[in-house]
């Protein structure tokens, strides 16, 4: 078990290293002359050279990479060009915001999706099942900007139940913050509900048809016990993996929702960085999103193996 | 059919339907039988005949698309279909238990064994502080040696035989009145099967539980049951005392089934097996007249017009046939004359000093150790041994799928084969081919038969498209299939036909050696007989050699010229089939042979413990930890060599052959 976790951590580190190389190539190498890209075609060559020297982008690539990754490991991702502030500070704040939104979305969608999936599986082929599977699938394909705009118009403009922006006034209470985050969370819930309920449904159906559930039923265990202990325990394992794989999306992929609801999350920050050719910020942001993704996958794998004795206890003893 | 009070289970005119698409199709019709207190009834029949469906209806656990459409099932006087949910639950807790095939799947993978067994006591409302003790007791009762350790295990940590004992323990813990056993030993090794069957017999003798025993194995049913019902296409065709059904069958189907089985000392050099022509009617087919008429060799006009009743022949046996008195003299479908073989003394394949070590989590697993074996041109060599003995590994080494450790030599005719499939020439690959156990997973289900065989022809023969199609046609005729099957996909073929396609594919390049890995064990007996006949005919025509891997010793005895017995990656005994079965035997072979279900009561040798892990073989003789003839320290310290004790017969044992003969008190076999 320990070995498994260690190996898994090792793999995560290797992935992050490869990601960092790709990010470096993408943000420092492909743009060509960084100073020129930042300052534009009308800047003097002198100014460009000056900026390159200041950014260190006139040095050998391997030195630049070593410098960048060395700093990154210590939490120093350099300074943002457009904000003139340390990248880590900007990212830290955005990451906190993104995490808040992700948590709200998760707290709503995971129980809902799992419950929906279980209900669909237990009522397989009946109207409840069709409603959940077809409904979930339809919701998944609605783009966030469509559902987001509709939600804003209905709940913020017409009914005025929720604020139209996700950003609460400074120093507001937990309740106020939550109030601001519910509306932007709903498009995410709509996208994720279909995935989560479908995978849960499949897992539950597989377990329901398994021989061990037959054994349990024929032993005379009451139906609720069979479902709770025999079915769910084995059926929810794949769901964990799916949920974890969505963390990366929630942390880094919410550009549209964050822009729509005027929210300072990582997605929005990356979007801005890309628009303003703020390469240090972009590189740092992608790396952070990658790390968040890796950590969530790692936690999912560990949770999965903790729940699965075949991995936890190992082979024949 | 009168319901009497001393009948525990009464099934009357039972009809069961399955919904396929929007249509309800009859899977079981008009089945009636009853089981008295303490009685055991067996249901036999080929796959798809409705055995399991009947059992599941009795448990009130039909699949979602199944329903009891007519008739009644009464357990202890109560109609099962009319029980409320909680009454049904009480019935399952106290009165009826079930054990089925594949114990690895019947236990929850994420709950410890102890907890799963304790459930039963919890449901029986045994006080909580007694659970642990009762769990240990019941596990001990099913002869689990170390129950304190087993209760803490998860299912994946136990062997199949051990798991089946746990399942049986759960089933008998409540001392049910009826025990339903659905193929409880299918898929287990013969030695384990014998132990599980013994266990069931002993428990029955002790508790007087009634048993409904379902199996496709006639030998198992005969050993375990007082009465037998023969099911065919959802119909009960015959019923009666087990002895009578098996020794004096009075239905053409029963006769056909029994004739399909290779038994006793019959060898394929003496006679071909008889088979049952045709195939099972499709689910829900409306057939006028006798349901078996299409396959019956003595069918008359009347059989096609009206259906015979299940008539009493004498007091307690029944047959659903108009001409039960003619059944024993059923004409043969297959002429008995065996195909004429050319025999050769020339060696085709010679493997020597072959070892194969795998790496598992850093430690070596010795899958094969010093195997020397030769196969002559046109000869059948059978490989027997329990699972984990290295049979498949040896086959894969010969095929080049596994690369043997250094020093191994695999010689085919004049040439030394390359170790690895990748480095083998087309000619080398062509000459060694394989047929797998399960044709379903061995054939690409998206391709037509023409394409499956044609591709093999193209690759192995280097023929073009046109030529390959002609050759595919010929191959299909060679495996006795019609050209109409050329365009069929595997999913539209029966199991037997699929296996024929797999055989045709293996023969596409006119191989010199075909490895047959349990080629008939997934098939019904009548189909098995046809495939065995086909293999014998092909061997005679093509002069091909077979390496035949099987756990069914009756089949081995019938098909094999020579037999090699493997244990823990080593050859323990090699000799002609006649010699191996006659004895004196290696102690391991002796135990294996005695485990067959058709052996006489009381002659079985119980092996101690389980086959050791190949990663941790015992010192000395690899069999010493389980050997019932161990002579002392030498067995524990020195591994005996495989020595030629008689011309053409080698054995790996410290006991001299004449002493073995004396120990085994060999009387000439019947």
Question: Which key terms come to mind for this protein?
Answer:
heterodimer, A: 317 residues, mainly alpha, MetI-like fold, 2 domains, 77% helix, 0% strand, globular, B: 670 residues, alpha/beta, Rossmann fold, 3 domains, 8-stranded mixed beta sheet, 24 helices, 24 strands, 33% helix, 23% strand
Describe the structure concisely for a colleague.
The complex is a heterodimer of chains A (317) and B (670). Chain A is mostly helical and 317 residues long.
Oligomer description? heterodimer
CATH architecture annotation of the largest domain in chain B? 3-Layer(aba) Sandwich
CATH topology of the largest domain in chain B: Rossmann fold
Number of strands of chain B: 24
Number of discrete domains of chain B: 3
The domain tally of chain A reads: 2
Class by SSE composition of chain B: alpha/beta
Strand order of the largest sheet of chain B: 6-7-8-3-9-10-12-11
Task: Please give the CATH architecture of the largest domain in chain A.
Answer: Orthogonal Bundle
Q: What is the structural class of chain A?
A: mainly alpha
Helix content of chain B: 25-40%
Dominant shape of chain A: globular
Summed up, the helix count of chain A is: 16
